[in-house]
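From the shared-data thread, chain only:
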Amino acid sequence: MNDAPRISRQFSLCMVMEAIVHCGPISRASVAKQTGLSKQTISEIARQLEDDGWIRETGRTSGHVGRSAVTYEIVPDAACIATIDLGGTKVRAAIADLSCQVLAEVTEPTDERGGLHVVRQIARLCREAAEHNGIAYEKLRMAVVGVPGVPDPQHGRVVMAPNVSGFDTLDVKAALGAELGVEILLENDVNLAAIGEHWIGSATGVDDLAYIALGTGIGAGVMVGGTLVRGFGNAAGELGFLPFGTDPFEAESLKVGALERVTGTVGIRRRYQEIAGRGLDVPGIFDAAGKGDAAALQVLEETARYVARAVASICAITNPGKVVLGGSIGGRAELVNRVREFLPQCFPYPVEIGVSELGSRVAIVGGAAVGLTHLHTTLFAGGVPGAEISLPPAKVVKLVEAAQ
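Structure, as tokens:
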């Protein structure tokens, strides 16, 4: 049986949908101009998409000579995805719709009990995010979960995640699927951050990049030629295990990483305690440094030197066009400026150092990019290889103010 007509039709449908997603409201004549398809083909596809509830008429063109034309846009909430950023201290959940609008998120402290308690917390927050944004939960098709560790695709676990207990022995993917009743995709949170920055952040259009997150821990998402680098065991970018900062042969270094022991939140607080003889949280240490506290300034300088060495390590291997720093610690100007100062002292070639434009929402946005790409392909490509819909550029994507 000749399948060519069906394949051709599917490619045409994807082209029409891509034009509407990127440029809607848009007329059939404008779609024809962009796609090269005949007006008859576009009319037939538009009728099919409208009948199926994916697009809708929005009005008519105006201000042109001649007859006005019907314009179309996608029905944003015809289907949605949940995007979740799970951290050691906070978990965030948001909804992204078919128009690539990332809706307001809901946030709360991560359940310290870990394991199934966190799974159920994520499921509850997904439902709350849908309700908060006026989305019927039945419209949810999948959930993308950014995790602070390495997803094990064979067993559904998350390994190398010391900040969320119990995920290394639990089939997290299956448990979440049972709770939510939708397809689940687990991805390293920093990988999602790199994807988010590449899509609509400070590295848009930069296909060779590294995103380094520094907060509770330290990690990197690396893209080469526009493709995420995962590595054999899905653990590429685990910067915390670079063998410097502390003794990499100590048992604690095997658990959380030699570099993470000195650059993460716990390490920074411990170092300040050692020097100053008193305790402060990390924001307090930054505040003290701003007031000239000698111990705080020393800790900040030491941390920046370690981060500069980590940047140099990535640059020596992947040669990124840009390195983006982010996270609750990594995105602070006091640290970024020092990293820019120290990097030329340990690496011979110029490296552009940027700061995340998406801030705390970067993994949420990356999850939306992954989920919406998958959703559009599932809904409109019809299983035809190569038939796909690219995500719209940054100027089209909308971010709704996060919930307080």
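The radius of gyration is 23 Å.
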